[in-house]
Amino acid sequence: MMDINKNNPLTLRPARKPELLAPGGSYVKAVTALRFGADAVYAGGTRFGLRAAAGNLSDDEISSLLAFAHSLGKKVYITLNILPRTDEFAGITEYASKLAKMGVDGVIAADIGLVAELRAVVPGLPVHISTQANTLNLATCRFWASTGASRVNLARELTIDQIREIASGLASDGGNKPELEVFVHGAMCMAYSGRCMLSDYMTGRSSNRGECAQPCRWNYSVSAGITEEKRPGRVFEVEETERGTFLFNSTDLCLLPYLKELIGAGVSALKIEGRMKSDFYVAVTVRAYREAIDLVWDDIVSGGNGVLEPDVLARLLREVSSVSHREYGDGFLHGGNGSQIYGTSSYVRDSVFAGIVESCVPLDGGAAYSLTVSQRGNFGTGELLEFVQPSGPVLSHLLSSMYDASGVPIGRAPHPCMTVRFDVPFPVENGSIVRVPRTDS
Q1: d(CA 23, CA 440)
Q2: Is the Cβ–Cβ distance between 76 and 41 less than 8 Å?
Q3: Distances (CA, A) of 160 to 182, 211, 405
Q4: C-alpha distance from residue 343 to each of 4, 146, 327, 346 (Å)
Q5: How many CB atoms are closer than 10 A to CB 239?
Q6: 259 phi, psi to nearest 5 deg
Q7: Are strands 179-187 and 252-254 parallel, antiparallel or unpaired?
Q8: Alpha-carbon distance 308 to 322, whole Å?
Q9: Percentage with pLDDT > 70 across the chain
Q10: What band does 5 get if pLDDT is binned at 50, 70 and 90?
Q11: Contacts of 181 (CB under 8 A, 6+ apart)
């Protein structure tokens, strides 16, 4: 990553603090994201989104999520970002009309024709342009503005200077203009802005229809061409040009060190990828970016340079490194061509997701607290536990004793989602994430 103290102008600071937009791959994950600091969540309904394997939300769950989010002054966006066929338009617009009546704060779409149809059929429903639309330039943003789109997600392949150029151009237009949104964290597709046919070709599951099998993560070898270990008779020729290979196994994106640059470039929404990721990932990542955005924004508003203190940045980077991830990088933001990892397709994980705190009951007038935890990963006595709270500090406790749901003493919690109880010397917020730091990391 580049020097975090690089001096970039703050000439296009948004009028308000950028929105932190987080993934809601299921109802529980969406609620988790909001509780841990997201300003808004994006989620899929049961149809027409690009994460067919995610725990997408039913109509009842969307209604409940809207009630919860709106009670906090936060927002919910629903994805309609498949690339649709003609015979699907009626179903999508009917669904969008239902979403509008439910009170969703916007829908996310990628197809030009569908955006036009949505604006015509449900004119009061805000439409955000998906990353799948591959928006790379000012002219395209101006086109989306002409459709009445309220927000455009810019392609990951843009540099910070190109983002600033687009924002400056829109600002000079005056009148109604779409907000700009960028991804700041999460998986990077090895294809150009997600336009990949590899899954469709090899498995019959289209990434542009929400069914990607992620063959870019499989174990390939190269000789005269590429072969995949389970398909030894199928050889794929490889050609590397001066632009690189653009194939396979990208690094993960992490722009925590560059929030000041993005805010200064005129970005209005900062988006975290990960609707297929765990509750642990959502909670920890959202919490880290919430703190970072608040610190950067408050410093800018008070006349500072918006650069995170090195010790704070190091701590927040450790936090996002505690969840399962590939090697982090800054993608294309500073002029690179993204990054590929050729040595392994394995993930890095600096801690174990141990469980979720379901209740915290004071004992002896507050001298101790009894926690009820729903287990998510094997852990036991003698291990250091960390409690990542939605709003409070991260707390630590060396576990000396533990009991199962019947009150029987146990040394380990090996069974998925089993209920365990143990005492700690401090209160812990309900919904807190329990993790065990890895000693070999």
Answers
A1: 30
A2: yes
A3: 10, 31, 52
A4: 28, 46, 11, 9
A5: 7
A6: -65, -35
A7: antiparallel
A8: 20
A9: 83
A10: very low
A11: 21, 128, 151, 152, 153, 154, 267, 268, 269, 270, 271
19-188+250-329: CATH topology: TIM Barrel (3.20.20)
Which residue type does 344 have? T
Amino acid sitting at position 67: A
Residue burial 110-122, b: 16+ Cβ < 10 Å; e: rest = bbeebbebbbebb
The arrangement of secondary structure in 351-437, i.e. its CATH architecture, is: Beta Barrel (2.40)
What pLDDT band is residue 48 in, cutting at 50, 70 and 90?
A: confident
Note the pTM of the prediction, 2 decimals. Answer: 0.86
CB 268 within 8 A of CB 179: yes
Q: Residue 360: beta bridge partners?
A: 371
Each residue's pLDDT tens digit, 151-185: 999 999 999 999 999 999 999 998 789 999 999 99
Span 244-280, pLDDT tens digits: 444 566 788 999 999 999 999 999 999 999 888 899 9
User: Which tens digits make up the pLDDT trace of 104-130?
Assistant: 999 999 999 999 999 999 999 999 999
The domain ranges of the chain are 19-188+250-329, 192-236, 351-437
Residue 181 near residue 268 (C-beta atoms within 8 A)? yes
- Give ∠ CA 139-142-143 in degrees, rounded to 5: 90
Q: Which of 333, 313, 317 has the alpha carbon at shortest distance from 325?
A: 317
Q: How many C-beta neighbours within 10 Å does residue 19 have? A: 21
Q: What is the DSSP letter of 326?
A: P
> How far is Cα 115 from Cα 198, in angstroms, rounded to an integer?
27
**100: phi > 0 → left, psi -120 to 50 → alpha, else beta; which?**
alpha
Residue 216, CA distances (Å) to 196, 203, 213, 248 in order: 10, 12, 9, 5
Count CB-CB contacts under 10 A for residue 274.
24
pLDDT at 402 over 80: yes
How confident is the prediction for the chain on average, in pLDDT?
A: 87
Give me the residue label for tokens 């994106």: 253
Residue pair 281/388 in contact (Cβ under 8 Å)? The answer is no
Alpha-helical segments (H) within 12-159: 27-35, 59-71, 89-102, 112-121, 138-147
CA distance 306 to 210: 38
256 DSSP 8-state letter: G
